[in-house]
Design brief:
With 273 residues, the protein is α+β, with helices and mostly antiparallel strands. It has helices spanning 2-89, 160-163, 168-171, and strands at residues 92-97, 108-118, 131-133, 152-156, 177-183, 189-193, 203-212, 224-227, 243-247, 267-272. The chain is built from three helices and ten strands, in the order H-E-E-E-E-H-H-E-E-E-E-E-E.
Length: 273
């Protein structure tokens, strides 16, 4: 009996020792888990901090984007204003020789129409260009006497083969008309002799024939492009001469033939861009 009691005591002692070991192991496991939880919580806290910082940065970026959009809208309005200002204050002018109206090209408007004037065809002095005179002159100071230059009206001369034989009597010795035209959307203009079409990128305003004074006369005039379908001033057939306009023909020699042809009337075109 005593032996049994001793054996039971030993058994209980061993069992108690095993329980303590188990508890110690559990406690260690709990400590490990607590450490892992602490580490995870720290990582979560850092992640949350980073997310908060990213959210702040995102909000700042959205505010910056909105500010940029507002600035871009203002810049766009300013650019449009400048474009409108440029359009309203730019452009070019040209004279539509031989017509009282402007071509029907876009953005082209009539400034005024009138009659062509210039220095007398026999004059050694005076000006070399033709001008488009308005019908309603405005005078300032004026007087009589003393030396001066003179302004004459211009007449068509020897133009039967340019404008058709049936129209020869209509144009010969009649006064030449003109129109000053403004092009709002284009800023350059050029007259190209010996061509009927403009270069690529240019707008054709009108085509016609080169005209100037007769080379055997005393006066000289600049080459001028007269519309291929000209008009005349009504009731102007009087043969008073003045500033005359003749056809211009090609003369071979120093002028390369071909492609130029001896005696052929030279064409012209007025272009804007």
């Amino acid at each position: 009996m005593f032996c049994k009691i001793v054996s039971l005591s030993i058994f209980l002692s061993l069992a108690h020792s095993q329980d303590e070991d188990a508890i110690t192991k559990l406690q260690n496991a709990v400590l490990v888990l607590q450490h892992r939880v602490s580490v995870t919580e720290a990582q979560l806290e850092k992640t949350q901090t980073r997310l908060t910082q990213a959210d702040v940065k995102l909000q700042q970026a959205e505010m910056n984007a909105a500010a940029l959009k507002t600035q871009l809208a203002k810049e766009g309005k300013e650019i449009q204003r400048l474009k409108n200002s440029y359009t309203n204050n730019s452009g070019t002018t040209f004279v539509h020789w031989g017509r009282t109206s402007c071509p029907g090209t876009p953005s082209t408007t009539l400034v005024y129409s009138g009659a062509v004037g210039g220095t007398h065809y026999t004059s050694q002095g005076g000006a070399a260009d033709y001008v488009c005179l308005p019908p309603n002159p405005q005078w300032n100071k004026y007087g009589n006497g003393g030396l001066s230059s003179s302004m004459y009206g211009a007449e068509y001369e020897q133009v039967d083969n340019l404008f058709g034989k049936k129209n020869a009597a209509k144009f010969h010795d009649n006064d030449v008309v003109c129109a000053v035209c403004h092009v709002a959307s284009r800023s350059s203009q050029i007259m190209i002799p010996a061509r009927r079409q403009c270069q690529s990128g240019w707008t054709k305003e009108y085509e016609g024939y080169l005209m100037a004074t007769y080379e055997g006369q005393g006066g000289k005039k600049l080459f001028t492009c007269v519309d291929e379908n000209p008009e005349v001033a009504r009731g102007s057939f009087e043969d008073k001469n003045g500033a005359l306009m003749y056809r211009v023909i090609a003369q071979c020699g120093s002028l390369q033939c071909p492609n130029y042809v001896q005696g052929r009337e030279l064409t012209c075109v007025v272009c804007t861009k």
